[in-house]
Structures are given as C-alpha cells and as structure tokens.
Amino acid sequence: MAERFFTGAEKERLRAVVRDVESRTIGEVVAMVVDASDDYPEAEIIGGIFLSILVSLILTCLFFHASIFWFVPISFVLFLPSKLLLSRVTQLKKPFLGADRKEEAVRTRAFAAFHEHGLDKTRQNTGLLFFLSLLRGKSISLPTGEFIRRSARRPWTAMPGLSPRG
After folding, report:
1. Cα gap 100→141, rounded to integer Å
2. Cα separation, 116 vs 54, whole angstroms
3. How far, in Å, CA of 43 to CA of 69, rounded?
4. pLDDT above 60 for 110
5. Which domain holds residue 68?
C-alpha cells in the first residue's frame, strides 16, 4: 500500500522538493511512508480471538441450537484462520489497537528510521525525517537539534512543498 500511496508524478514532485530544500539549506531530508509502524502481533491475537468467537457464536446459533459443545471447538478451530486473516489485512487490526499503542509504535518506528537513514550522523548534524504511517494516519517530523537551531529564522515547517501536516 505504501508503494502505491503516491502516484509517479507525486513521487517525482516530492523528490524535486527534497532536492530543492537540500540545495537551499544545510539540511539532509528523508521522506518515508510505511503501511504500518509495527506488525502489532497483539492485535492479531486479540482480533483472532474476537473474530473466532463471533463467527463460532453465529454458526452455533444457526446450525447447532446454541450448543456450548459446538461453540468451544469451533472457536478453537477458527482462531488460526482468523489470526491469519488479521495478519494479512492490516486495516482489520485497527479496532484491536489502543491509541497509545499505535502512537508508541509510530514514534518508535520513526526514531528507528531516523537512525537507519543515518540522519543522526549527517555532516553538520542537520538531518530531517518526514515519516508517515498509513495505518495510523499520522505523520511525524524528526529534525536534529542543530537543524532546528540553524533554521530558527526560517522554520522548516514553512518551507514550500514540505509540511509535516500535508
């Protein structure tokens, strides 16, 4: 999904804006889009349990006269397919994740990406990461301290074409 988030023209425009900003400032800029910031295995388990119980309840009420002797085994049998479905369809995990957990995952992944791309080791300590997590629908901007200090006169959030909000 992240690969298809921007059209080819939008990707080229983003590259051009990054090149332009880097040519006019001392900053080194990276824009990154990810489907999800984490695999969220707990959402797969919780969602798998919920989905298997729900489907089992419906099946036992429709076909087995709400018998507990059918409900429990069907729930167990349906757990793995339900968990597998959630692991493959990332959007289905959303209801089983708390806002704090998603926020923590986005911040952790953005921080890891900042270091993976070497933005903490730029020539003059002037790295800037624009990070977008599609599942969370959240963008984060991580500048180095030196980048903030040197761009105090002209805030990086006001640079044309680069905005953490849009």
Report:
1. 18
2. 41
3. 27
4. yes
5. 41-96
